[in-house]
Amino acid sequence: MLLTVSGPPGSGKSTNAELLAERFDLEHISGGDIFRELADERGYTPVEFNELAEEEDQIDRDLDRRLRTIAATREDVLLESRLAGWLAAEHADLRFWLDAPLDVRAERIADREDKTVAEARAVTERREQSEAKRYADLYDIDIHDLSIYDAAINTGRWGEAVVPDMLTAAVERYDPAEDEGKYPVEGVRYDF
């Protein structure tokens, strides 16, 4: 089984991906963790590294190639990243998108990163604009196009206690033999 969990910062994607991976005994691979490690190794904050990646596209290409290769060659994995659904594409059994209103996400980020909500909101907006531009420029991906996902959930409506159960129910009820509706991932340039 290969699952993907995607969504913007503060959407609950990491929390839910960890729980889902545990429930189905899947290896959890986080693109965000890899990206933050790369930023730290080079002495940048994630926001600074995002902006640097606008000029040095090899940063994204290296990370994304690694995630795409994992999706194509391994089983029993849960990939978590903003682009996991796009990168795993036809290899994914199920692709999930988690989101919440910006104000909710900014509060969550402020709590976990010990920032003010205003700071978290400003950094998040800047980061999202940077990422959306890079994804479009590098791969022709419109990150706002959710048509490839099997489920998109507003985690601001359902909290930490409910969303994992919703995702679990979807995975448990998924039967590949009955699957008629996987959305194709088309028009992407996997140019790594």
TrEMBL record:
Keywords of this protein's UniProt record, alphabetized? ATP-binding, Cytoplasm, Kinase, Nucleotide-binding, Transferase
Please give the biological process terms from Gene Ontology that the record holds: pyrimidine nucleotide metabolic process
- Top-rank taxon, per record: Archaea
What does the record give as EC number? 2.7.4.25
**For this protein, what reaction is catalysed?**
CMP + ATP = CDP + ADP; dCMP + ATP = dCDP + ADP
Q: Where in the cell is it found?
A: Cytoplasm
Please state the protein's primary subcellular location: cytoplasm
GO molecular function terms attached to this record: ATP binding; CMP kinase activity; dCMP kinase activity
Query: What family name appears in the similarity comment?
Result: Belongs to the cytidylate kinase family. Type 2 subfamily.
- Protein name in the entry: Cytidylate kinase
Q: Which organism is it from?
A: Halolamina pelagica
This protein's gene is called: cmk
